[in-house]
Amino acid sequence: MIILANDGIDSSAKETLEEMGYTVEVEHYEGDALLQKIKEIDCIIVRSATKIRQPIIDEALKTNQLKLIIRAGVGIDNIDHEYAKVKGITVMNTPNSSSDAVAELALGHMFALARHIYIANVTMREGRWEKKQYRGIELNGKTLGLVGFGRIAHSLAKKAIALGMSVIYYDKSDTVTELENCQRVDKETLFKTADFLSLHIPFIKEQGPFLDRKAFKKMKKGMYLIHTARGGVVDETALLDALDAGIIERAALDVYEDEPVKNMRIYTHDKISLTPHIGAATYEAQARIGLETIEVIKQYLA
Question: How far is Cα 143 from Cα 139, in angstroms, rounded to an integer?
């Protein structure tokens, strides 16, 4: 079996797969080059950078060699997975590996916003001593609101509770796993109560942004927003206007409508802490993703 890890793979996982007898290629293809390469491989492993849309799947069907698409991560919204399945191509992901990494990044952003770390680091390097401007707040005693209550949100909730925060969450699923010391609430209560709001849901294009102008108008004034989910979940223009109006005190973003981010208002705004979609980018998470990818391949071949 020829495997293309189009967005890279942990080196130890690559070695293990090769020891199992597979050919593993790690060159990155895009555009016309990917359309050609997709006809020559049995399995493609992608992260968030590569989008596997219908035209690519249609091209793969010309040779019927592609049998497995693996998303090395949680969300599969960058893959037209329903279309792939209809066409006989299996789509799998690695949902267990990066939860702690993303949760820790979200928590890091919470500290960065609460204590002005993200901006003080910049102004200090410019030779400015703005001690009086950077009086912050403590996380202890504050309420963390979570949108979506899956693996990542569970991990973040546990960390927040350990810091003395109260945790509430909104999830539209009826099968969500409960967690001790976390209270389930409706969306309106979440917006009115949370001091920090962290998003952990996929982007569903047909439904549009979860946080739009109407949602921001319902929020508790002075809220802190943490967004490590998916680009499109937040209407960025509405967020910027909410920041300028003081509805949102500060925001932290790891994902964007366009990546790399193109909106100058986003990357120059002094109330936004920014990272370039690095939620799962830890050595530990990538090693776990590699191991889980191997298990996914074993499961497929079983």
Answer: 8
Q: Could you tell me the pTM of the whole model?
A: 0.89
- The neighbour count for residue 90, using CB atoms within 10 Å, is 16
Q: Where are the domains of the chain?
A: 2-95+282-301, 99-274
Per-residue model confidence (pLDDT) at position 224 = 98
* Catalytic option among 200, 227, 277, 288: 277
Are 223 and 197 in contact by the 8 Å Cβ rule? The answer is yes
Q: Which fold has domain 2-95+282-301?
A: Rossmann fold (3.40.50)
In the block, tokens 């990494």 appear at 101
pLDDT of 45 reads 97
Q: Which of 47, 109, 154, 230 is catalytic?
A: 230
Tell me: the pLDDT tens digits for 238-267? 999 999 999 999 999 999 999 999 999 999
For 84-106, what is each residue's pLDDT tens digit? Answer: 999 999 999 998 889 999 999 99
Rg (CA), the chain: 21
Decide if 197 contacts 226 (C-beta within 8 A): yes
Domains 2-95+282-301 and 99-274 equal at CATH topology level: yes
Does domain 99-274 fall under CATH 3.40.50.150? My reply is: no
- Annotated active-site residue 125? The verdict is no
Contacts of 104 (CB under 8 A, 6+ apart): 159, 282
**pLDDT at residue 302, rounded to an integer:** 64
Beta-carbon contacts of 189 under 8 Å, excluding residues fewer than 6 positions away, are 168, 170
Question: Left if phi > 0, otherwise alpha if psi is -120 to 50, otherwise beta: which for 223?
Answer: beta
Average pLDDT over all residues of the chain: 95
> Which among 15, 178, 188, 259 is annotated as catalytic?
259
277 is catalytic: yes
